[in-house]
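Tutorial sheet, problem 5. The three components below are modelled jointly, 949 residues in total.
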Amino acid sequence: MSALSADVIIVGGGFMGAASAFFLRQRGLSVILIERDRVGQHASGVNFGNVRRQGRFLPQLPLANRSREIWGRLPELIGEDLEFLPTGHLRACYSEDRFQMLEDYAAKARHYDLDLELIGRNALHKRFPFLGPDCIGASFSPYDGHANPRLAAPAFARAAVRAGARLFEQTEVLAIDKTDEDFEVTAAKGQVFRGPIVLVTAGAWGNLLSEQFGEPAPLAAHGPQMAVTEPMPYALKPVVGIAATNAEENVYLRQVKRGNIVYGGSRRGPAYPDIRRAYVKPENSLNQFPQLSRLVPALRRLSIIRTWSGVEGYLPDERPIMGPSAKVAGLYYAFGFCGHGFQLGPGVGDVMAELIDRGQTSTPIEDFSIARFQKVVRLSELSQTAGDTPQ
Amino acid sequence: MNGQFHRLAEQQRPSIAFSLDGQAVTALEGDSLLVAILAQAGHLRVSEFGDGARAGFCLMGACQDCWVWTAAGERLRACSTPLIEGMAILTKPAEDAWLIP
Amino acid sequence: MADPLIAIVGAGPAGLRAAEALVAAGLRPVLIEEGQRDGGQIYRRQPEGFQRGYRDLYGSEAERAARIHELSEELRTKIDYRPETLAWALADQCLQLSHRGRSDNLPFDALILATGATDRIMPLRGWNQAGVFSLGGAQIALKAQACAIGRAPIFLGTGPLLYLVAAQYLKAGADVQVVLDTAPPSRRLAALPQLLSRPGLLWRGLALTAQLRRAGVTLLRGVTPLEILGGEGGLSGLSFRTHGGESKTLACDAVALGYHLRPETQLADLAGCAFHFEPETRQWLPEADAEGRSSAQGVYLAGDNTRILGAEAAELSGRLAALAALEDLGLASDETERRRLVTDLARMERFRKGLVQAFPWPHHFAKSLPDDTVICRCEVVTAGDLRQSLDLTGAKEVNRAKAFSRVGMGRCQGRYCGHAAAEVIAAAQGVPLETVGRLRGQAPVKPLPVATERVVA
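Model answer (structure tokens):
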């Protein structure tokens, strides 16, 4: 066989692709990982860095738990900790009905071992005195935390390469064709990669490839509106988010050990997959400011020193696409993580490797099948009655 | 302590009182905060990352190396802030008091 | 049709001359200045109440400075002048202007960027200590505040500013003992033909050197700086190798450091202007045509933020950019004058190339910087940190290296470490500098307080 073939060809070197490559190698499968730019350069590298489970869609918690378990033993697995700090995640709220929602969530999440702790107003301000007076309660998830997204995908890719995976950066995949047995993956510079299995982990560009197999996904690109303050003495330990009643309120923040406060949220910004760029709208930065000060008033005294964004893929139901193709044997997908994929990264890699290796996985992922969008299309073709959204 | 800066002219200006790390000091009307401090001290602040004292670098608002604190917890860029009578300046923040006012 | 709105960022010689030309055309431009007073860095004004005269402050440039200040007074009622205003972002043909804690949107039809330059820095061991200032900073201390940066300063680096600032200190009564230039003496002679394109300026430069020599100042050329020494009590000395290879240490309590200038290009970057790599100066510069048009529609570049031509050229290029903007907006614009300005600027460009040759950027120092030399003073990233990160990650591009090592990630956004970091990367990875790229600009252009309020129209 030529050097350009492997058991699994992974298209897309973000966190999902890099983690999948690593765990596939752990299982002894040969892997080629192809990235159009540089590993982790897009959404994987520029997101907030939340290692958060609480607040997730409940059926996603087994996957998030599997991932959290891996986060805890990164040094032994890949030789780096990615600056993961299990500081706890605090989800505050400004209204009684949101507190009720947090309580409901905690009750339902009890089966998933998050150990959520609900904290009422007085206890909250005593324990987290940096919160603003508008905060009336919170849910604390003690084992969640945060990590450095810039390091994550590259570190997994390096570990995969050390374990024998072959990495091709700056290699743009133009087409994937299924021949009798194998897939043929053709890149812009003329290389052809062959293998019996293809895993598409191409983020906001994933649907360009799934489309080639008749499985379009209604993927939209948005840019998170990230910023960072000047460094301050390290004092703000948990990640802080808000159970918001509207998009504007929805900011989240964390302090890194070096002292800077990283934050994002409120409205999303424009992203342009075709030029691979996303932008922070200056007015979004200004609109974030009062929300930050409302949540943690001391931030009002700081200055921000940098803003950034990146191209993230979103699906209309805010759930990713993950699992086997519904149409083509040997084809797998893991993309469109709707701005909440960072915590899941290691777990997605582990589950996709298991799925590809064993044909099944012990972690339920049916809710994320690409088939759910084909159903939508067929149903809407059957009944043209306007406004009738299939559930 | 000797100041880092050395006045060469324009010393007939009225003097202005302010405080530096709790000490009552004076400088001259028309001084930038950076000059007012460095006329009597060797530095403006301490680097966050353990490499010692800093006294600014560019004096033109580009390098951002001269941010100091007021006793009230505000931040000022010393090279581009004029000295005002009665300012209370700190060269370092009180550890984690910044977070919980 | 309403008059087009033309915004100018920077009220130095380029910005003021641009405003003058637009006013003459019957427009009322918006002139945005971050500082409290206009004049730019070169004709920077001292605060109210200071007594020194123009001759003291600006030396041979006194008349030029006076004319610029008069022009600024004259324009005051004819333009929309906005001092103490930071243009912190630029998106969708709109500037974001922050003034006294409030930020407003300014949509423009044309934008003239006249944001000037800052010192270009090659780090050396110990440059991150209190008491080391940029040459430009040392000059501001004197011009704007009548202070010397120390009682026994050493002037180190290369470029015309090195000699100018040392001579200004000497004239103001400072104890100037030594000027250390990294440019080898032979480079001056080779540059002479180009430098003769502006004989007056060349003469003034030579006169500065002569003044310093007459006053007994030691001028050493072709030096290799080694370390700025100091401790708890401040700086104590500077060690270097002479052109002849001899190691020396001189006592000092302050160092003024700079290797000529680099353009201030953040807004041009946010505007989407294309940049090109200039091999002679080993840096990326925003592209502009002969009249100052950038590659971005409606965005013009004037003064030192495009290439370092100096103050006199800034006046010309400011005026020219304004005339080009008028032409592009379909308004009256004197073509003959534009041609004349282009010709004058071409002569100054020859002189610039001469300066570049006479005072080269000492890129070769980057390779041998000891591992414990701080490169990025904001984030305290050392040469060793950077090299180690490159070894681990294989990064060969500067933004990539920044993501992994934090070099250039701090408050100044790489203004002072970006060029040196790129050189360290090129040397460590054995790749040509141009392939290392340049640090991308990101809003806010300068730190922006979270307390900033949005002005809603």
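Marking note: Chain C has a mean pLDDT of 96. Full credit if you identified this.
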